[in-house]
Amino acid sequence: MNQKKRWLVVLMVGLLVAGLLSGCGGGAAAPDAQPAGDAPAASAGDAPVQVKTLRVAFNQPESHPQFKAMVSFGEKLAERTGGAYQVEVSPNELLGPQRETIELVQTGTIEMAIVAGSLLENFNPDYVVFNLPYMFSSRDHQMAVVNDLDIVGDLYRSTANQGMIAVGAFHGGVRNVYTRSHPIHTPADLAGQKIRVMESDTNIRMMQMMGGTGTPMGQGEVYTAIQSGVLDGGENNELIFAGLKHAEIAPYYSYTQHLMMPDMLIINTDLFDGMPQEHQDTFMEELRKAVDLQVRLWDEDVAVAMEEAIEAGASFNDVDISVFQENVKPLVEEKITTETAREIYEKVQAAAR
């Protein structure tokens, strides 16, 4: 037998032996291979479920009530969908400042982000209604409005063709001014003070009407900017004031109560619209529960934050807000320029009565 025929016989025998071994019931079956890049599959009964990771960008620490609420949301969503989704919340701007994370959601680079409502004005100016000073009379008033889809449903989906939609809103606390050098009692006390505000024309204009100079800046840069004198202070709620250690470098916290803005949870449009209807329904049900949990945690965490801030050297002072309210009134008429915004504004006011 020549060399070529000998190798052919060996090959045929080898294939025959391999076939016999693979058909033998005594050996262990090899697991099915997972497609490259896919997460390990969970299973509901006999049907495999491919896990979809939902990354959430967040600019505050793990101690924040919104972080805790989103972790709870992720656990419940995974449980109720048989492990179809895994929510990963990235705190402390690990995925970037809020403005940049909106763009990441739009492109589908990440799936979700929690962002200040004022930033969404850049995509639909009608969002300005929720970001105007002294718009809400109480937290209950705010939460009754911003998660009522009869009032906000069309607004929240208005950016769908821009790659993202809002699916709900968290309570973002009441924002107050804090400074390096002195407490604030009147607009005159803010004269010449550079106060960090969010990247929104409305916020810049508001601070100007309150007597100061609004300076937009990413949250991660604020501590150093105040410490170095680039900024004279900031404006935010007690949790962020204490959590980001701003009490160490701007200890005068004054209750101007100028803003009660919602923080919006946004999601990539194609991702949400591509979910099965039952998963969309479950997502929204669990998100409403997460919002309720966050509100319950808020007061507890504010009390702890104030104690921490006082230990760090902070002082808190009340303010007669009537003069500030009067100063910013023109901003409402200046900013509500469309029929849709006016309609939403009237519904907000009606909800307070």
TrEMBL record:
Alphabetized Gene3D superfamilies for the sequence: Bacterial extracellular solute-binding protein, family 7
**SUPFAM superfamilies per the record?**
Periplasmic binding protein-like II
Q: Which UniProt keywords apply?
A: Receptor, Signal
Q: Which residues form the signal peptide?
A: 1-23
Task: List cellular component terms (GO).
Answer: outer membrane-bounded periplasmic space
One GO BP annotation is: transmembrane transport
Q: Which domain of life is it from?
A: Bacteria
Spell out the PROSITE patterns in the cross-references: PROKAR_LIPOPROTEIN
User: Entry's Pfam families?
Assistant: DctP (PF03480)
**Segments passing through the bilayer:** none
Q: Name one GO molecular function term.
A: carbohydrate binding
Its protein name is Tripartite ATP-independent transporter solute receptor, DctP family
The protein's organism comes out as Anoxynatronum buryatiense
Q: What is the lineage of its organism?
A: Bacteria, Bacillati, Bacillota, Clostridia, Eubacteriales
